[in-house]
Design goal:
Blueprint (H helix, E strand, L loop, with lengths): L3 E2 L6 E2 L2 E4 L9 H13 L4 E3 L15 H12 L3 H4 L1 E6 L15 H15 L4 E6 L25 H13 L3 E7 L3 H14 L4 E7 L11 H8 L2 E5 L22 H4 L1 H4 L6 H16 L4 H10 L6 E5 L3 H9 L7 H14 L5
Parallel strand pairs: 3-4, 3-10, 4-5, 5-6, 6-7, 7-8, 8-9, 9-10
Antiparallel strand pairs: 1-2
Helix pairs in contact: 2-4, 4-5, 6-7, 10-11, 10-13
Length: about 350
Amino acid sequence: MNHVTLGQSGLSVTPICLGTMTFGEQVNEADAHAILDRSLARGVNFIDAAEMYSVPARAETCGSTETIIGNWFAKNPGARQKVVLATKVAGPARGMPWIRGEVSKAGIIEACEGSLKRLQTDVIDLYQIHWPARNVPAFGAIYFDPAKDRPMPSIEVQLEAMAELVKAGKVRAIGLSNESPYGVHEFVRIAEQMGLPRVATVQNPYCLINRAYENGLDETCHRLGVSLLAYSPLGFGLLTGKYDETGLVGNHGRMALFDSMKAQRWGRPEALAAAKRYNALAREHGLTPAQLALAFCYHHPKVASTIIGVTSVTQLEQCLDAWGTTLSPELLKAIDTIRWELRDPAQ
């Protein structure tokens, strides 16, 4: 795999990133360390975490993912220097009272200090705001409602906090997550206007059943030089085919294990119906559903790096082996035909 540069940051990463939100809930520490070992051995140099992980979010496991990664660094001298480490500060509380209520300047700095301690490192390579600190449709909401606006720390204040962390050498580059075209544009505009750190990346969902990124955010990122980190390329498992026969029950996948996830965008009946169409298309072309879904993201010119989440070394190997899968122009056209009909049911 050739490395790619994230935005204007100078960070050089593999086009596959190991997502770790299962560490501490579905994956115990020993198994997580085995996944990290194998990922590094296979050449992946990019790891993504968040202060609120593992998922589903619970007070008891908040920060557990970062702790597991930090313990891995402690056990493997030299590993930290081999990876680009990304993590995220939580946005305003979304039913999680154990996380601070707003993304204030002091809150961002405090959160970073906590992540550094858990990760057992002196610096975070890419520090991201997990979701916007303002009223914005996200996580399945699609309509902006100005009546929901509330006082929140400004983008300038958030960037000033990031500037302090960068100046102190605790953060190398910054990014956003679950952002809109407006948000990305404003973060870049204000940074350039005020001489503050410029966002390098936006981490948003992008997969066959959610291509909302292409509804305007793609142009914003292209013109502003912001790289896309695509998460949920397998649509929370729907695009592996494992739910095709059983539905979201009678299965060991996260959508079957956790009722809270069934209520999210990935649990919509329309999302599963669309996934079945893409999964059938994959089989018609001699591919597994996962190979089709991953190859679509891996080799898409709009994606800088694809974040894969696994619960075993076996799953990791399968995801990495899919790197060699290419999709013909005819197959890509068939994918677009389904999208034209079904649009983005997991948006």
